[in-house]
Design a protein that fits this description.
The chain is of the alpha+beta class. The protein has one domain. It has helices spanning 2-7, 45-61, and strands at 28-32, 35-40. A two-stranded antiparallel ribbon has the order 1-2. It is globular. It starts with a helix and ends with a helix.
Length: 62
């Protein structure tokens, strides 16, 4: 949630906390624009957020 507050305009980014999204034994599971990503961890969350979330938000505001 801190990454959204820090970097995102918030206009297009919505964070939801569902109960279970699938194979979470390998890390956090996230859906971004109907694409599923698995294995998200504290080691790769910043890079994932910049690459997938902010890029998508930037593309949609053009």
């Amino acid at each position: 949630m801190d990454l959204v507050s820090e970097h995102s305009s918030g206009n297009l980014t919505t964070v939801k906390y569902p109960h279970c999204m699938g194979p979470c034994c390998g890390g956090v599971v996230a859906d971004v624009d109907e694409k599923r990503f698995t294995g998200i961890s504290t080691k790769n969350v910043d890079e994932f957020f910049m690459r997938e979330v902010l890029k998508l938000e930037s593309d949609q505001t053009l």
